[in-house]
Write a structure and sequence with these properties.
Strand 12 and strand 13 form a beta hairpin. The chain contains 18 helices and 22 strands. The chain is of the alpha+beta class. The protein folds into four domains: 205 residues, Histidine kinase-like ATPase, C-terminal domain (Heat Shock Protein 90, 2-Layer Sandwich), CATH 3.30.565.10; 145 residues, Ribosomal Protein S5, domain 2 (2-Layer Sandwich); 94 residues, Rossmann fold; 131 residues, Four Helix Bundle (Hemerythrin (Met), subunit A) (Up-down Bundle). The strands form five sheets. It has a nine-stranded mixed β-sheet. A five-stranded mixed β-sheet has the order 10-11-14-12-13, with helices on both faces.
């Protein structure tokens, strides 16, 4: 037996390991199983090139709990180590790796450092939960097995052992305060979380399997059973296969495997597969999303060589795609760095732009192959596409080929098609294309109907980021203006309408305006007289397009950047001088009746704009009943 001291250059490194990132003690199991996987895959490689003269077979990794002895065992059938290799890999290389990692982060223990994955702590992460660790290992070479023991101090013992099977067994003597890691449920939870798709089968206990009944069995005879290994992982997940080997059902089945509590099928998937200039594989799914910006993000799982790292992929995946679900696996993403470094990392930027391009290409293909199906799915995917257009310039360019602009009548246009459709009838005096849109079918119904009567095409743009997106569209596309149907700009922007003559003289208009302004509160409404069709409403409330849009942008984040603070509630009251009610107001002799007609017409206009609430609504109803009487 030999004894020794691990060369410690960081003071009190073992207490540091035990306390490091206390909320992340659970990563020890992932690290040890990753090591076991590496050892198994190394053996596979050596046998395949003829360097190891042993049979690779069908190795598994086994995890066992011994509650009585308060031990946790991780056993592999991999390459194993000789005593000299234990000294080299455990006492020198593995320890210096843990030492370097802890030196970098020792001042930040317990903080949310944003270190992704914490890969790099490796074997010594075992001391987070164990007061003593043993290694029993036998190399594939013809040499005796070795037994290494360390009690969490720099001292260790190393001696020969009679272990006869090739591979390594790690025995953790669990701390009293960490006995949750001796509970089957806890270990199963961690294995499923971190090792669900490891490339080597992982056994955790056994399960009973029902066998087919023999042909001569009676109906009442119970079916025979047998005990089989309980393999908790899928070593060959869908993303490791080529798309040509997978059917649509395979992708759906894998989605259910990733999200067992998600009952809705995904709309479609995107299979990522690149090996130059970096390695990346994965499958992204578009779930049904509608217009909810508050859906749960952190659903994309990041793996490194099939080992789970994190489900917070911000900085690796473009922000607009964090609303998707699925898996990304890349050995090229630096994992033991803080998130702030990721923003500047060249490989990460390339990965991010590749994913953006791949998603855009897939959407274009889906649009081209089945436009009808794409249109049906538009409401469920538009929030991702619109958010991408807003935040990623390259995606904005590509999206011009598949982004849709639905109308209130459920027709769908690309922007190019829309432009062609409305250019002759919706161009203003400055030759700007005026795109009319509604954001709420019910609230803006009367305005939509008025626009349709004039032959205008009205879009339905109702996502929460629409005001930001329209700002972007207007800055990217020359001579285009988006105007909501209840905006003051509707009447001003369309140049090709025939001018309607007013039935009122200038003197009558002046008198009417004075009468209206005496009754209508000037701090809320700017009165404008317009000669319109006599069948149009007598009073129409519009809102300044710019002010309303800035207000909306402020509510969804972004309006404040203009330094305008809170936007005032200011509306225009457009009075149709050709409507007979307006003539009646002008010609009514008694002031009381004039005021009643004006207030009634104003409240009806406010009602159609959804502005009449509370006490004012109550008073309107009372007044209306009085007028009926």
């Amino acid at each position: 037996m030999s004894q020794g001291t691990i060369n410690v250059s960081v003071e009190n490194i073992f207490p540091l390991i035990k306390k490091f990132l206390y909320s992340d003690h659970e990563i020890f199991l992932r690290e040890l199983i990753s090591n076991a996987t590496d050892a198994t895959l190394k053996l596979k490689h050596l046998t395949s090139i003829g360097e190891a003269q042993v049979a690779y077979g069908k190795p598994i990794i086994e995890v066992k709990i011994d509650k009585e002895k308060k031990q946790l065992h991780i056993i592999d059938q991999g390459i194993g180590m000789t005593a000299e290799e234990v000294k080299k890999y455990i006492n020198e290389i593995a320890f210096s790796g843990a030492e370097e990692f802890l030196e970098k982060y020792k001042d930040k223990q317990g903080e949310d450092t944003g270190i992704i994955g914490h890969f790099g702590l490796g074997f010594y992460s075992a001391f987070m939960v164990a007061h003593k660790v043993e290694i029993l290992t036998k190399s594939y070479k013809e040499e005796p097995a070795a037994h290494w023991v360390c009690d969490g101090s720099p001292n260790y013992t190393l001696e020969e052992h009679d272990k006869s099977e090739r591979g390594t067994e790690i025995i953790l003597h669990i701390n009293e305060e960490d006995e949750e890691f001796l509970e089957e449920g806890k270990i199963r939870e961690l294995l499923v979380k971190y090792n669900k798709f490891m490339p080597i089968p992982i056994k955790f206990g056994t399960r009973t399997e029902t066998l087919p009944k023999p042909e001569d069995a009676k109906e009442e005879d119970p079916a025979p059973t047998k005990e089989v290994d309980n393999i908790i992982n899928n070593p060959n997940p869908a993303w490791t296969k080529t798309p040509t080997d997978l059917k649509e059902d395979d992708y759906k089945s894998f989605y259910r495997e990733l999200y067992p509590m998600q009952f809705e099928e995904p709309l479609f998937h995107i299979h990522l597969n690149v090996d130059y200039p970096f390695n990346l594989t994965g499958i992204l799914y578009f779930p049904k999303m509608a217009s909810d910006m508050n859906i749960q993000k952190d659903r994309i799982q990041l793996y490194q060589n099939q080992v789970f790292v994190t489900d917070n992929v911000e900085g690796i995946v473009p922000e607009f795609l964090t609303m998707l679900r699925g898996v990304i696996d890349s050995p090229d993403i630096p994992l033991n760095v803080s998130r702030s470094y990721l923003q500047a990392d060249g490989a990460v930027k390339k990965i991010s732009s590749y994913i953006t391009r791949k998603v855009a290409d897939k959407l274009k293909t889906l649009f081209n192959e089945s436009r009808e199906d794409f249109e049906k799915k538009w409401n469920d995917i538009k929030i991702v596409i619109e958010y991408g257009m807003l935040t990623e310039d390259k995606f904005f360019e590509k999206a011009q080929q598949f982004a849709l602009y639905p109308t209130v009548d459920k027709k769908y246009f690309t922007f190019e098609e829309l432009q062609e459709k409305i250019k002759d009838h919706q161009t203003d005096k400055d030759d700007k294309l005026v795109v009319l849109y509604a954001s709420n079918l019910d609230a803006q119904h009367s305005y939509i109907e008025a626009a349709k009567e004039k032959g205008y095409e009205v879009l339905l743009l109702d996502s929460p980021i629409v005001s930001h997106l329209l700002q972007k569209m207007e800055s990217e596309k020359e001579h285009v203006s988006f105007v909501r149907v209840d905006s003051d700009a509707v009447e001003n922007l369309i140049k090709k309408e025939e001018e309607t003559l007013s039935k009122l003289s200038d003197e009558e208009k002046e008198s009417l305006k004075t009468t209206l302004e005496e009754v209508i509160p000037s701090e809320k409404f700017t009165v404008q007289l317009e000669a319109m069709d006599s069948n149009s409403s007598p009073f129409i409330i519009t809102e300044p397009e710019f002010m309303r849009r800035m207000k909306e942008m402020q509510q969804t984040g972004g309006g404040g950047m203009f330094g305008m603070g809170n936007f005032p509630e200011m509306y225009n009251l457009v009075v149709n001088t050709n409507h007979e009610l307006v003539s009646e107001i002008l010609n009514t002799k008694t002031q009381k009746k004039k005021e009643r007609l004006i207030n009634q017409a104003l409240d009806l206009a406010r009602l159609s704009k959804n502005l009449l609430k509370g006490e004012e609504l109550t008073n309107f109803i009372k007044r209306s009943y009085g007028m009926i009487k």
